[in-house]
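Exercise 7. Given the encoded structure of a 392-residue chain, write a plausible sequence.
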């Protein structure tokens, strides 16, 4: 039998230096506990509980029946890219042609491919935190240096970004609506940032996964604010369209960058699942009322979850996405020294799953998802409140 340390020494350092996804790992733990008969309320979910629209499913099935199961266009079906052009112009005020677009296996893949294409060893990438932890790991895999700046408020702290920029800065990641805080950045803040970096040849990656889930504000795309060719827009069908399992995302960028990413894409996965793309086409043809009804339900859940949250924690009202990010520091003690231990305690004693701030490169907070039925939200907070009565 091969000695464990000898075997481990043969694994590439870049793989051993990567931290596993806490959110994915926790989802697996929750699924396992449920399969064992445990009554677990999952307020950790990063996906809507809504079913994918019937029209979308039917068009996917139709594509299968019609035999659309072969290799397809590397950058995405032409019809889908045309529909995306229409969508981003109507919804986001972004002018694009199919040559500006590549369709990928979710936005996670394209973010990885962008960083692999743009970042050289030693290049700096500015990331406001708390954030989606995949950003950091993707930067590490590209050989870049992540520069983390704290941005816990309801708007983008442009001054901190300005102060973090150096001669080695290659890219800035902006995520609005934000995961995990639910912040929706103002047009004024984004304009200020665009004006500052316009002549610096710094790429800006605008991750807009939650761009259609906005309640009390308006989503602003960087590419609609400024025609800077260094702006890269990333969107997905996963969140707003309740199509997480379809694994379809896309980027909008300068044609030369699209071509370079396409070269890399061709050696990784080739085209996105062919028949799934026809479901994506159908999703862009759905009436707006269908999505507005779901947004209205989400807003009701947000308001209820926020009311419960404020009874227990300090928390900002999220303007977008489907998360709250309350401060739990007053409950930390010798038994729960950080947010991770706090979440473990609640999972064990309350049967409620949350995401700790450490999974978002932060501290002292937890991410609470309201992408769950109202009764689950109510029961979840009732359980949390009952347990916390004995922790202070």
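Solution.
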């Amino acid at each position: 039998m091969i000695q464990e340390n000898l075997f481990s020494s043969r694994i590439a350092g870049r793989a051993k230096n990567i931290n596993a996804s806490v959110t994915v790992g926790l989802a697996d733990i929750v699924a396992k506990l449920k399969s064992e008969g445990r009554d677990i309320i999952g307020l950790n979910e990063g996906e809507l509980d809504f079913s994918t629209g019937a029209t979308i499913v039917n068009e996917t099935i139709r594509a299968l029946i019609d035999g659309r199961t072969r290799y397809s266009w590397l950058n995405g079906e032409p019809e889908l890219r045309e529909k995306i052009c229409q969508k981003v112009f109507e919804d986001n005020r972004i002018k694009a042609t199919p040559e500006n677009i590549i369709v990928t296996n979710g936005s996670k893949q394209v973010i990885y491919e962008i960083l692999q294409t743009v970042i050289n060893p030693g290049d700096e990438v500015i990331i406001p935190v708390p954030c989606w932890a995949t950003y950091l790991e993707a930067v590490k895999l590209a050989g870049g240096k992540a520069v983390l700046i704290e941005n816990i408020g309801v708007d983008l702290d442009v001054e901190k970004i300005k102060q973090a920029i150096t001669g080695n800065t290659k890219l800035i990641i902006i995520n609005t609506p934000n995961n995990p805080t639910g912040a929706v950045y103002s047009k004024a803040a984004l304009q200020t940032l665009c004006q500052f970096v316009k002549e610096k040849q710094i790429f800006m990656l605008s991750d807009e996964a939650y761009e259609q889930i906005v309640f009390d504000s308006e989503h602003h795309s960087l590419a609609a604010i400024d025609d800077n060719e260094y702006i890269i827009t990333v969107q997905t069908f996963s969140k707003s369209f309740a199509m997480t399992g379809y694994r379809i995302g896309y980027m909008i960028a300068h044609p030369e960058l699209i071509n370079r990413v396409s070269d890399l894409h061709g050696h990784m996965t080739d085209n996105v699942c062919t028949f799934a793309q026809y479901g994506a086409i159908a999703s862009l043809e759905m009436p707006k009322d269908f999505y507005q009804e779901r947004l209205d339900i989400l807003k009701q859940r947000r308001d209820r979850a926020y009311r419960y949250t404020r009874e227990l924690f300090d928390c900002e009202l999220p303007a977008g996405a489907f998360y709250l990010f309350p401060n739990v520091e007053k409950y930390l003690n010798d038994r729960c020294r950080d947010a991770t231990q706090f979440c473990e305690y609640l999972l064990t004693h309350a049967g409620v799953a949350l995401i700790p701030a450490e999974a978002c490169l932060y501290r002292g907070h937890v991410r609470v998802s309201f992408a769950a039925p109202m009764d689950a939200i109510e029961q979840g907070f009732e359980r949390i409140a009952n347990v916390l009565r004995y922790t202070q």
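Remark. The mean pLDDT is 95. Students should compare their own answers with the one above.
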